[in-house]
Amino acid sequence: MSDTPAPVELLVCVKCKRGTDVAEDGERPGTALYESLAARDLPEGVTLSPVECLQNCEGGCSVAMRGGDLRWTYVYANLHEASDTDLLLEGISLYRDAADGLIPWRQRPEHFKRNCVARIPPLRKPAPNLTDL
Amino acid sequence: MSDTPAPVELLVCVKCKRGTDVAEDGERPGTALYESLAARDLPEGVTLSPVECLQNCEGGCSVAMRGGDLRWTYVYANLHEASDTDLLLEGISLYRDAADGLIPWRQRPEHFKRNCVARIPPLRKPAPNLTDL
């Protein structure tokens, strides 16, 4: 096993209307959020993926973060396409830096502390050498 | 690749208080839900796992379902330890039977339709032979 943490993926729900009344041919807030991220340089080791519905429709916009068998997966809610791009880029970088996906509480962005919808445990427990890092 | 769907895992948040005032040494509703499931015969291909906090604390009790790289992962909320064991055993069986994790809408338990907190896409898209099944 390598000591290098696995790459991570930022998944954005592109179908999200964020409670707004979007015209049939209008751009959805979730798509706008995805595009605002896609227009930026992503941090190293981070990929961006569009998803058709994370089914957190009451709390959009929503994103998920995952990365390998050793990390917790997180779902965050109540993001805004116009103002939360920097937050998400910072957040995914911190997530990437955590081998288990647990961003230390003091470093965790305030929005993440208050808007976590759910988290799912890693598939594997880290090997002892990883917990010692 | 085998045509046999991967085994599935039912994860139960054992820390959940379900909004109740649990004594320090009292049994938490999440633990009771887990134990009521553990006391039953699980359907074939299903494993049961306790989790310390799925971070859906506002909507407990909560469970997650996952199974292999081809299935969507689901998180369901607002479950009750005293009455939802059968619902969960039925639900995880239906989930196990779906190679992509998408329980057909007409078969989907009503509780699942109205209490999905989030879902996370599969890591891989199914091979054509699986989508043809």
Question: Can you summarize this structure?
Answer:
Chains A, B: This is DUF1636 domain-containing protein. Chains A, B: InterPro entries: DUF1636 (IPR012863), Thioredoxin-like_sf (IPR036249). The structure is a homodimer of 133-residue chains. Chain A is an alpha+beta fold.
Q: How do the strands and helices of this protein lay out in sequence?
A:
The structure is a homodimer of 133-residue chains.
Chain A: E1 8-13, H1 29-38, E2 46-51, E3 63-66, E4 73-76, H2 85-97, H3 110-114, E5 116-120, H4 128-131
Parallel strand pairs in A: 1-2
Antiparallel strand pairs in A: 1-3, 3-4, 4-5
What does the largest sheet of chain A look like? Answer: 5 strands, mixed
* Structural class designation of chain A: alpha+beta
CATH topology of chain A: Glutaredoxin
Spatial gap, N to C terminus of chain A? 14 Å
Helix content of chain A: 10-25%
Largest interface, Cβ cutoff 8 Å: A-B, 19 and 19 residues
Q: Order of strands across the biggest sheet of chain A?
A: 2-1-3-4-5
How would you describe what is shown here?
Two copies of one chain form a homodimer. Chain A has one domain (8-121): Glutaredoxin (3-Layer(aba) Sandwich). Helix content of chain A is 24%, strand content 19%. The first copy, chain A, has four helices and five strands. In chain A, strands 2-1-3-4-5 form a five-stranded mixed sheet. In chain A, strand 1 (8-13), helix 1 and strand 2 form a beta-alpha-beta unit. The longest helix of chain A has 13 residues, at 85-97. The radius of gyration of chain A is 15 Å and the shape is globular. The model of chain A has no long low-confidence stretch (mean pLDDT 90). The A-B interface holds A 11, 49, 51, 53-56, 62, 64, 66, 73-75, 116-121 and B 11, 49, 51, 53-56, 62, 64, 66, 73-75, 116-121. Chains A, B: This is DUF1636 domain-containing protein. Chains A, B: It comes from Aliishimia ponticola.
